Amino acid sequence: MPDGTGLAGRRDLLADGSQVIDGFLDAPPRRRVVISTDVANEADDAFAVAYALLSPSLDVRCVVPTHFGQRGVADSLSASRDELARLLAAMDRTDSVEVRDGSPRAMSDPQTPVDSPGARAIVAEALRDDPLPLFVLCLGSLTDMASALLLETAIAEADLTVVWIGGPSNPPDPVPLYWPEFNLSNDLVAANVVFGSDVQLWQIPMNTYASCAVSYAELLDRVAPQGGLGQYLMRQLYNWAEGFGWDWELKHLSDCAAVGAVIRDDFGRFDLIPAPQFSEEFHNVATDGNRPIRVYQAVDRRFLFEDLFGKIKLFASAGGSGAYPPRHPVGEGVVWGWQPH
Questions:
Q1: pLDDT by residue (tens digit) across 184-212?
Q2: Does the predicted TM-score (pTM) go above 0.85?
Q3: Domain count, the chain
Q4: Which of 1, 116, 155, 184 has its CA 20 to 30 A from that of 248?
Q5: How far apart are CA 34 and CA 137, in angstroms?
Q6: Domain-located, residue 139
Q7: Which domain holds residue 188?
Q8: Using an 8 Å Cβ cutoff, are 313 and 325 in contact?
Q9: Adjacent-strand bridge partners of 278
Q10: Three-point CA angle 18, 19, 20, nearest 5°
Q11: Residue 178 placed within a domain
């Protein structure tokens, strides 16, 4: 006979949903995370950073705003720093998340790092004596990560995995979505440094991250009503889309895939291949001597977006406080009063 100790026998808990929620969310983090993000460049970075901060299994140790070249802005590092500050304010996390400036520009050559507080933060976290593995999520160029490797070569042997959103599809697409791939083009030198190193690397290339699309209709339905964070995310998305003339009915939330890969070990299908190098024309160049890396060919979009939207909703139901994960949801949500500006 059932002894009542399994989930099916714990109907007393299921009758009180808050106890079940507490049990899930009180679990300790499983992985340390540092995020390097060009958050002012694209609207999906803010979704990804929020997703990581809302995930109980991740201990986000530092967020590093970084450059995205000079496309449309003279000081892209400052733009990223300012946008990150707005995101953290919307989450009431300004005082509880460590922020360190990353690189203001791309690397000039493969021997010279761009020294920055952000690169130093990656080094410090990689060398920390901690039982949790470290994942560095690079949502833009690889400048900060490459600089960290050059500043302290020993971190390549640490319990460290780099997860990069970027680079062309491998094998190549017959007709690429666009060219050159943006994050690679922002620092080709840094990409070759990281790919040529011994650090563990998971790549989510163009064909895979481009599959992470969400319609504006779904975002208006699932995200916009969810309190201050939902309103912030939609407002910055609106401002981005307005600059591109509203050409489409969707947005690629590509950077969120990096978070999903760290949360879930079986997040998608990947190949293990020797790390390529990249040509001056931004193509893959096959190599035999580099260590194998994980190249994702497909990811679980259903899990990714249901998890993201569910966490945003839980955050709003808890009043949108910085004390997330929420332990005691209050009220019945908020009234949606979102305006684009």
A1: 999 999 999 999 999 999 999 999 999 99
A2: yes
A3: 1
A4: 184
A5: 6
A6: yes
A7: 25-317
A8: no
A9: 284
A10: 90
A11: yes
